[in-house]
Amino acid sequence: MKNNEITSEARRLVDRIKMKYPDFVGKTVSESDIAKLEKELKIKLPNWYIELYTTVPLIDTEFGVQEDEPDEDYDGISYMIWGGVDDIIEESTEFEPGISALKDGYVFIASCSHGSGNPIYVKLNSDETRVYRIYHDDLTKAQLVENLASLFKNAIV
């Protein structure tokens, strides 16, 4: 796992967002926020995850991913809003698919900004950091990208 690749691509994404939206201010989390997250989710978070959330102001960023093939009525881009600690805890302990996803080693990272109710998750116990949309109606998973670094690198601002 190239931990620094994830954080460096995330920083580049935040820089691209700030270039387009100069007033944008994202948020990071504190070490105590990480401790709260680990306690509430009853898991040990990987170092790359802690580094990402404590050093890159990603929280509240909104960006897109090319999820579907474009057609004449839809560009195929899905937009997401990166969640903070309270969002992660709420999605993972109070709602499906988050409760089931957490049991399977996935943790919530972003909500769909189109309001589909089908949130975005990352596989924590995988070296690949694959990113998935998990559908709330039947808990099926659709892989969006191979890893977080490519999500950030190819994000549409």
UniProtKB/TrEMBL annotation:
<protein>
    <recommendedName>
        <fullName>Knr4/Smi1-like domain-containing protein</fullName>
    </recommendedName>
</protein>
<dbReference type="InterPro" id="IPR018958">
    <property type="entry name" value="Knr4/Smi1-like_dom"/>
</dbReference>
<dbReference type="Pfam" id="PF09346">
    <property type="entry name" value="SMI1_KNR4"/>
</dbReference>
<feature type="domain" description="Knr4/Smi1-like">
    <location>
        <begin position="28"/>
        <end position="154"/>
    </location>
</feature>
<dbReference type="InterPro" id="IPR037883">
    <property type="entry name" value="Knr4/Smi1-like_sf"/>
</dbReference>
